[in-house]
């Protein structure tokens, strides 16, 4: 066996290499030799710690050749750190890291490198055993390279919001992962990504710390060494001290039971909020460095149930009783698969059962539901696809949508109104614009749109300035040339000042308009006249008015006076049939497709389903509020009466809930591709009336230079089936208006 090169010999070799390259030995590298020799003399592991940010360009070539020599030396490991601005370019640092190869222990890096550096690291992998990365500015994390030796990954204090579908797919030995103080918020994609880690035992999205009444804050009592998840056997390759990161809480048993009870009962403890205990010691617990995912309702329950091999979550050990409780609570609050299907089935298996006419298929709907469950179960990352209608043919003008509606009969058509008062009909499958109607007079946003069902070429459009028009799209222009536009085929109605909503009844004879007033106006479509104005129907302005889907005289109103009211034109609407109240102002209301229910959406995620017949509460969807009084929430039905979708203008998430049980099926996170630092928010949304588990979302960005866009969401198609497209969007303050 070849003799390993000693440390003293290695140091001499380094000095010779410096002479060879005509440079002076770097003092920090010489210090690393001294420290390694000192550790060896005290029978400690012989590890060299190199600070790359102290390495200059003149030091690079001697150090690179030295790293190749280290692999055949008695040095047991190399730790590399970059903690401040580094004078070396990205490719030089990457060459140094890779040259250490199998003896690479810990890599501790702040984000002082460019995007290409991290893409190379995350796509090609590293041979290190511990990787600590801070201040990373990637929004979506997609680590797909080989990290075969990695057992600890620390990604605290980064701007990561979510995970790519292939993330963590090549980390077979990762046992400890910390992502405290990130921006991760989606339970579904996070748990799906983490399931790719077969050895994961210790996971952190926040830290629980305990403090006593006599002191404001003290570290948690660590476990004994044989119980510590990050013990000496797993840390044998390096002397890096991550015990502060992976320190497990070990309170007394009675105190632990009290804490667990609070954590599981609605997870009342949030970031910065303390929980008093009832034991004599007077202990308190506080969550620190919490990522947004920790504020999700039943976060701990969801993670424990989704990650069966996990032993520690947020430095709190997972006991058998916790798993039992999590299983029970999960089944009460979540749908694992659509239509309460228990187990995943492959699409092929479902198709085989249909072909063999399995007795299970008693109806076509049963087959459709099983097929939907199989397709949705195949991926947690649904397909998001922006409609590419930003430009029309050869025109240079952009069209920024403000409201949209699916066509009631043609699955390929959609109409949208723009911020400049234009009405556009497009094929939303191809993105091709078919008809264009310019604004008339002063430009004003289109806030109300409604198709006629018995006359499917007719659409009513209402603008914020009060303009109300009925258009025949067959007579509209097929180009953006406004000089050739004619008003033939349009009907103008009396204005409704500061309009926010219009809706046509089930027979296409009447429509209603509401706006920034307490009144509602009734119009006759056939004669083009306003029949009546119902005054003072609410105490504050009426944001949305909706006719029922089957009763031509029944309609509902939602107002910021916190009330939703049901009315009947057959009775003089001086008194509502009933009034149902919310705790906050109501943004909108809509009927279920069969008219059995009213879906109400009040400010900041107060979403409820009422019985249409008498207004009694049927379901409270119990979506966690943000605390913002400007977080305007909108909700609609999807898949007929089966599911509801809900989104809010201060959040980038769409929630999908079962309309029969209230259980959460999925959250869909909107992700923009335009900028790493821009986020998308929900301004409006609609379920696709022709496609199961499909919807469209009117989204806005935080980037002020962007225009809004309509994002199509297909929950049944994996995201890798099509390349995502994205346009820019603009965030406008009028997000409380209309539906």
Automatic annotation (TrEMBL):
InterPro entries, A to Z: DHU1, DHU1_N, LRR_dom_sf, U2A'_phosphoprotein32A_C, WD40/YVTN_repeat-like_dom_sf, WD40_repeat_dom_sf, WD40_rpt
GO cellular component terms, A-Z: Cul4-RING E3 ubiquitin ligase complex
Residue ranges of every copy of the U2A'/phosphoprotein 32 family A C-terminal domain listed in the record: 296-314
WD repeat locations: 535-570
The organism's place on the tree of life at top rank: Eukaryota
Repeat in keyword set: yes
Regions of compositional bias (Low complexity) in chain numbering: 214-225
Region feature Disordered, mapped onto this chain: 214-235
Pfam families assigned to the protein according to its UniProt record, in alphabetical order: DHU1_N, WD40
Keywords: Repeat, WD repeat
GO biological process: one example: cellular response to UV-B
Full protein name: Protein DWD HYPERSENSITIVE TO UV-B 1 isoform X2
The species this protein was found in: Raphanus sativus
Gene name as annotated: LOC108817104
């Amino acid at each position: 066996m070849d003799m390993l090169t000693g440390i003293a010999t290695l140091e001499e070799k380094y000095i010779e290499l410096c002479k060879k390259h005509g440079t002076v030995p770097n003092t920090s590298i010489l210090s690393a030799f001294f420290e390694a020799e000192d550790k060896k003399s005290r029978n400690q592991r012989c590890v060299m710690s190199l600070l790359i940010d102290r390495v200059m360009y003149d030091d690079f070539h001697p150090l690179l050749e030295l790293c190749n020599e280290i692999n055949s030396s008695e040095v047991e490991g190399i730790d590399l750190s970059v903690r401040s601005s580094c004078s070396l370019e990205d490719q030089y640092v990457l060459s140094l890291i890779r040259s250490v190869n199998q003896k690479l222990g810990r890599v501790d890096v702040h984000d002082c490198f460019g995007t290409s550096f991290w893409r190379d690291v995350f796509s090609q992998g590293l041979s290190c055993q511990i990787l600590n990365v801070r201040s990373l500015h990637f929004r979506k994390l997609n680590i797909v390279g080989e990290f075969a030796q990695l057992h600890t990954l620390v990604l605290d204090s980064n701007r990561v919001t979510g995970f790519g579908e292939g993330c963590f797919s090549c980390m077979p030995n990762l046992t400890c992962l910390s992502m405290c103080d990130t921006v991760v918020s989606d339970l579904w994609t996070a748990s799906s990504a983490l399931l790719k880690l077969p050895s994961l035992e210790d996971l952190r999205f926040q830290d629980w710390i305990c403090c006593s009444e006599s002191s404001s804050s003290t570290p948690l009592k660590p476990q004994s060494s044989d119980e510590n998840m990050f013990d000496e056997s797993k840390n044998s390759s390096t002397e890096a001290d991550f015990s502060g990161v992976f320190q497990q809480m070990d309170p007394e048993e009675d105190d632990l039971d009290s804490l667990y009870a609070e954590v599981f009962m609605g997870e009342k403890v949030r970031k910065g909020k303390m929980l008093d205990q009832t034991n004599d010691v007077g202990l308190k617990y506080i969550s620190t460095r919490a990522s947004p995912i920790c504020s999700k309702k039943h976060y701990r329950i969801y993670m424990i149930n989704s990650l069966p091999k996990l032993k520690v979550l947020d430095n709190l050990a997972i006991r058998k009783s916790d798993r039992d409780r999590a299983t029970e609570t999960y089944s009460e609050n979540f749908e694992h698969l659509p239509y309460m299907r228990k187990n995943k089935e492959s699409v092929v298996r479902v198709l085989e059962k249909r072909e063999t006419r399995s007795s299970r298929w008693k109806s076509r709907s049963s087959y459709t539901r099983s097929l939907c469950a199989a397709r949705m179960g195949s991926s947690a990352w649904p397909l998001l696809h922006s409609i590419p209608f930003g430009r029309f043919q050869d025109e240079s003008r952009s069209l920024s949508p403000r409201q949209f509606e699916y066509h009631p009969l043609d699955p390929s058509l959609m109409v949208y109104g723009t911020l400049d008062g234009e009405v556009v009909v497009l094929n939303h499958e191809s993105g091709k614009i078919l008809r264009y109607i310019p604004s008339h007079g002063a430009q004003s946003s289109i806030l109300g749109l409604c198709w006629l069902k018995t006359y499917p070429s007719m659409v009513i459009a209402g603008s914020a300035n009060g303009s109300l028009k009925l258009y025949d799209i067959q007579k509209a222009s097929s180009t953006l040339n406004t000089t050739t536009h004619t008003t033939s085929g349009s009907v103008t109605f009396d204005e409704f000042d500061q309009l926010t909503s219009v809706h046509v009844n089930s027979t296409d004879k009447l429509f209603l308009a509401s706006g920034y007033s307490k009144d509602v106006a009734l119009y006759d479509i056939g004669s083009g006249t306003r029949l009546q104005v119902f005054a003072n129907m609410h105490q504050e302005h009426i944001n949305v008015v909706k006719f029922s889907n089957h009763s031509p005289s029944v309609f509902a109103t939602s107002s910021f006076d916190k009330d939703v009211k049901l009315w009947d034109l057959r009775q003089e609407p001086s008194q509502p049939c009933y009034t149902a109240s919310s705790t906050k102002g109501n943004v909108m209301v809509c009927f279920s497709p069969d008219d059995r229910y009213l879906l109400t959406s009040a400010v900041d995620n107060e979403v409820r389903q009422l019985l249409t017949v008498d207004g009694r509460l049927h379901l409270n969807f119990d979506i966690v509020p943000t605390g913002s009084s400007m977080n305007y929430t909108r909700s609609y039905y999807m898949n007929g009466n089966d599911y509801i979708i809900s989104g809010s203008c201060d959040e980038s998430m769409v929630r999908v809930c079962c309309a029969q049980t209230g259980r959460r099926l999925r959250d869909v996170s909107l992700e923009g591709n335009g900028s790493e630092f821009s986020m998308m928010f929900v301004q409006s949304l609609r379920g696709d009336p022709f496609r199961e588990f499909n919807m469209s979302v009117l989204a806005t960005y935080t980037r002020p230079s962007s225009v809004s866009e309509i994002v199509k969401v297909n929950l049944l198609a994996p995201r890798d089936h099509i390349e995502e497209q994205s346009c820019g969007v603009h965030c406008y303050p009028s997000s409380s208006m209309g539906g």
